[in-house]
Amino acid sequence: MSSQTDPFVRRHIGPRPADQQQMLSTLGYESLDALMQAAIPAGIRQDLDGLPAALSEAEALSTLRELAERNRPGVAMIGLGYHPTITPAVIRRNVLEDPSWYTAYTPYQPEISQGRLEALLNFQTMVADLTGLTTANSSLLDEGTAAGEALTLIRRATKGKDGQPVVIDAGLLPQTQAVIATRAEAMGIELVTADLADGVPDVEAAGIVIAYPRADGRIVDPSPAIEAAHATGGLAVVVADPLALVLLTSPGSLGADVVVGSSQRFGVPMFYGGPHAGFMAVREGLERHLPGRLVGVSVDSAGRPAYRLALQTREQHIRREKATSNICTAQVLLAVAASMYAVYHGPDGLRRIAEHVNAQARALAAGLTAGGVELVSDTFFDTVVAHVPGRAADVVKAAHADGIHLRHVDDDHVGITTAETTTDAHVAQVLAAFGLEQSDATGAASLPQALVRTDEVLQHPVFHEHRSETQMLRYLRKLSDRDYALDRGMIPLGSCTMKLNAAAEMEPISYPGFADLHPFVPAEDAGGMIELVETLESWLATVTGYAGVSIQPNAGSQGELAGLLAIRGYHRSRGDDHRDVCLIPGSAHGTNAASAVMAGMRVVIVKSSERGEVDLDDLRGQCEAHADDLAAIMVTYPSTHGVYEHGIRELCDIVHEHGGQVYVDGANLNALLGHAQPGQFGGDVSHLNLHKTFCIPHGGGGPGVGPVAVAEHLVPFLPSHPLHPVADRREGIGAISAAPYGSAGILPIPYAYIAMMGTDGLTEATSVAVLSANYVAKRLESAFPVLYAGDHGLVAHECILDVRPSVKAAGLSVDDVAKRLIDYGFHAPTMSFPVAGTLMVEPTESEDLGELDRFCDAMLAIRSEIDAVAAGEHPADDNPMANAPHTARELVDWSHGYPIATGCFPSGSTDDKYWPPVGRIDQAYGDRNLACSCPPVEAFA
C-alpha cells in the first residue's frame, strides 16, 4: 500500500479523531491547533520543515532492507571485544523480539517486575561466579564505559590518594583506553599508561587497570600488577572476557578488587557496536561503591523472598551534586539475553563453547607456525597476532576478498580472533590468505598452565534446570508473566515517555546486515549502516534546530556527559579554562548533577519559583556571582514540572550575557517536536532520548540512545573515536562510548519512526501527547490537584498530581497509591519526582481514550478509598490501600476485614486479571541485609 492509503500515524496515535474531539471538548478547545497555540508560548513556536514525506510501513521496511543488504558483514575475525555469536532462537524470539520484555520499564515498582529482576539476578550471579568476586551489578553500557566507571570507583573507594595517578595497561582494547582517557581527563585523574606485560612502573598509584587477556591475545598473569596495586594501598581493576574466564583462573581468586567487561559474546549480536551489556563485579566491602543498578533480595509482606533494586536512590536522587556515578547506565534487555544464554547452555555448554573457540585459535596458530609465520605470543585464548613484515595489508586484503574480516594491526602485524561461529573452513580460508595450506595440527596448549581454571562455576540450579527448549521456553514465559509491561497496559510514567514501540520499527534490527556487522569493518563494508546513521543524524538536527548531531552516546546519561564535554571543550578552545560552574535548577533530574560532576564541573543550584519555574531573579544573581567562571546551565524544557515556561528565551539570554552556554535537556522533547526547536530558542546543546521521543523501547531499563545535538560553534567538540570509520571524526574531545556509533544496532527503530511519521505525523504526535496529559489532568483535578500549570491552566505532556493532602488525612502515603494501582491493573506513575510525595503522569500519544479513562477511573476510585480510610471505615492497619498489592496467594487464607472483591477486584472485572507475584516488598530490610546473587531454592520453600 502507499503511504496515502495506509498512514502509519493512524496506528501510532491512540485516540481516534472522534476521541480527540471529545477530549478537546472536555478541555474547551475546538482543535488540536487551538490547544497548542494556547499551551506553547508564542515566542518559541516554530513549524517543522525539512523532513521527507512519510512512508508506509511497507515502504519504510523496504528502504531499511535495502540499507541492510548494502552492508557486508562477512566473517568477522577482527576481535577487539566484538565477536560473532549464536543467539539461541528461543532467546531471540522470546526475549529480544518479545514485547513483554522489551516494552517494560526500569523495575522501580518491584512487585510487578519480579520476572526481569530474577533474570538480572541470574546475570549478576553469572558475572560474580565467572569473575570470582562477591557482588556484580545488573549491567553497565559497554566495556569501555564500565572501565570508565571503574575510575570513579577507584576515586571514591581509596582514601587519602587524591591526586595519585591510575596506571593503565597498554594491553587494553584501544577503544577501552580511549573511553578511560576521556573520563579521566574530565575528572582530572592522571593516567600512566604502561605495558604491564613488561612489569609494573615504579609509581605510587590509586589503582591499576589490567587487561586479561590483552588486545593482542596474550594472557599475562595479572597477579604481579594486583600485588603492586595493593602494596601502595591502591585498587586492582581487571578488564576481562567472560568467555575466557570459563577456562581461565578468575581475577577474584588472584586478588582483584574490581572486574569489568562486556557480555556481548554471550549470545548478543554485534549490532555494529551495540547495544551490549557491560558489567562490573567487586570484592566484599566495595558493594556500596558500585555504579548503576544492583538487584538484591528482600522479603514481601508475607515474609517470602522477593527481588528489588538495592540502594536504588543512593546516587541519583540523594547525593545529586555530590554524585560521582549515574544510575541511568544500564542495558537490561541485553543483560537478560546474556544471562539466558548462560541459563540455556549451563556451565558444561559454556565450557564446550570456550574450548571450541580456543581449539580453533590453536589450530590457526599451528597452521601459521607450520608455514613459518612468527606469532607475537604462544599464550592466548582466542586471538592470534601474526608477524608478517611488510605484508599485513596484503594478507588482510586477500582474506577480505574471500569474505573474511581480519584486523590490520600495523604494516607488520595481522590479528585474527576466533569465535563460537568459527569453523574449520574459516581457519583454512585465513591460512590461504597468508599463502599457506591448512595444517592437520591441533596446536599446543595455549593457556598458561598456572592460570587454568580448576573451580566450578554456575552451580546454582537455574543454570542446570533448563536444558530442553521446552523447559527454556516455559522459564522465559514464567518470568515475563510475572511482569507488567506495555503489552499489558499503560505505563503512565512522567519524564519517561512510555509509548508504542511498533513492530515495524522493531523488525529491522534483526536483519543480518545490521545485526551481524562488526563495528570495525572497513567503511565500504558498512555503507548502508553509515548512510542510515548519517541520515538519522541529519533528521535529528532538523527537528531540533541544531547544526550537528553525534549518535555515539549510548544512553541519555552519556548524552548529558557528551554535551557538557562539548561546552567545556569550547570554553577551553577560547582560553576560558576557568569556566567550570554548571547551574542546575533545584527541580532537575538527578542525572544532570551527576553528569556535571563527571564532566569536571562544579554544581550550583538555582531556585525554583512557586510556579515550579526557574527563578529568573535567582538565576541573574547566580550568573552575576559566577560571571568569571560560569560554564553552563542545564535546563529541562518543558520544565521538569511539566510546564512550558515563558522565560526560556530570557533564561538563555541571561546565561549567554554572562559567558555561559545553555544545555537544554531533551528528556521532554515529546512536548516540543514539530512545534518548537531547542536549537532555535536559545539552546547551544541538547541530548535527545531516542528511547523516549523516538520509540526505541526501554527494555526494562536499557537499551537507550542519547545522541548529542549542538549549535554550529560546538560542532568541532562532538565525540570522536580513534577507530571511527570516518577519518575526520577520529580526533577530537574523545570517545564517549566503546563503539564509534554507540548502540548503532537499534538505530533502525528511530529511523523507521521518523520515516513513517513524517513532519505532520511527528507534529500531531506531540499535540496528542499534550492533549492526553491535559485530559487526564482535567478529569483528576477535583480528586488530586495538579501541582503546576502554565498558561490557561494547561500542562505540557505530563502533569504532577498532588496526592499529599488526601493521603496525609488518611494516614497513608504515595506508596500506598502506587501499590493500589497494581490491583487495578496499572503500573504506577513516577513517584516522588520531582516533588516528594506526588505522582507525575505522562500518558503519551499512544494510549487510546479507553485506556486513559480506565486510568482516570482507577485514580478516582482510589481517592474514594483514601477518603474511606480517613473517615474510619477501614482500620489504619487493615485497609485496601495499606495492604496493596493483593496477591492470588491471599485468596487461600483471606485475613482482611474487607471483602475479597474489594481487595483483589476493585475495578469490578475478573477477566484478564493481573496478579502481582509478591506482596509489598520491604525495601529497608533489603538494604540492611544486602543479598545480590541468586538465593538457594530452599529460600522459596
From TrEMBL:
<dbReference type="GO" id="GO:0016594">
    <property type="term" value="F:glycine binding"/>
</dbReference>
<feature type="domain" description="Glycine cleavage system P-protein N-terminal">
    <location>
        <begin position="10"/>
        <end position="434"/>
    </location>
</feature>
<feature type="modified residue" description="N6-(pyridoxal phosphate)lysine">
    <location>
        <position position="692"/>
    </location>
</feature>
<dbReference type="InterPro" id="IPR015421">
    <property type="entry name" value="PyrdxlP-dep_Trfase_major"/>
</dbReference>
<dbReference type="InterPro" id="IPR003437">
    <property type="entry name" value="GcvP"/>
</dbReference>
<keyword id="KW-0663">Pyridoxal phosphate</keyword>
<dbReference type="GO" id="GO:0005829">
    <property type="term" value="C:cytosol"/>
</dbReference>
<keyword id="KW-0560">Oxidoreductase</keyword>
<dbReference type="InterPro" id="IPR020581">
    <property type="entry name" value="GDC_P"/>
</dbReference>
<dbReference type="GO" id="GO:0019464">
    <property type="term" value="P:glycine decarboxylation via glycine cleavage system"/>
</dbReference>
<protein>
    <recommendedName>
        <fullName>Glycine dehydrogenase (decarboxylating)</fullName>
        <ecNumber>1.4.4.2</ecNumber>
    </recommendedName>
</protein>
<dbReference type="GO" id="GO:0005960">
    <property type="term" value="C:glycine cleavage complex"/>
</dbReference>
<dbReference type="InterPro" id="IPR049316">
    <property type="entry name" value="GDC-P_C"/>
</dbReference>
<dbReference type="InterPro" id="IPR049315">
    <property type="entry name" value="GDC-P_N"/>
</dbReference>
<dbReference type="InterPro" id="IPR015422">
    <property type="entry name" value="PyrdxlP-dep_Trfase_small"/>
</dbReference>
<comment type="similarity">
    <text>Belongs to the GcvP family.</text>
</comment>
<comment type="function">
    <text>The glycine cleavage system catalyzes the degradation of glycine. The P protein binds the alpha-amino group of glycine through its pyridoxal phosphate cofactor; CO(2) is released and the remaining methylamine moiety is then transferred to the lipoamide cofactor of the H protein.</text>
</comment>
<dbReference type="Pfam" id="PF21478">
    <property type="entry name" value="GcvP2_C"/>
</dbReference>
<dbReference type="Pfam" id="PF02347">
    <property type="entry name" value="GDC-P"/>
</dbReference>
<dbReference type="GO" id="GO:0004375">
    <property type="term" value="F:glycine dehydrogenase (decarboxylating) activity"/>
</dbReference>
<comment type="subunit">
    <text>The glycine cleavage system is composed of four proteins: P, T, L and H.</text>
</comment>
<dbReference type="GO" id="GO:0030170">
    <property type="term" value="F:pyridoxal phosphate binding"/>
</dbReference>
<dbReference type="InterPro" id="IPR015424">
    <property type="entry name" value="PyrdxlP-dep_Trfase"/>
</dbReference>
<feature type="domain" description="Glycine dehydrogenase C-terminal">
    <location>
        <begin position="765"/>
        <end position="886"/>
    </location>
</feature>
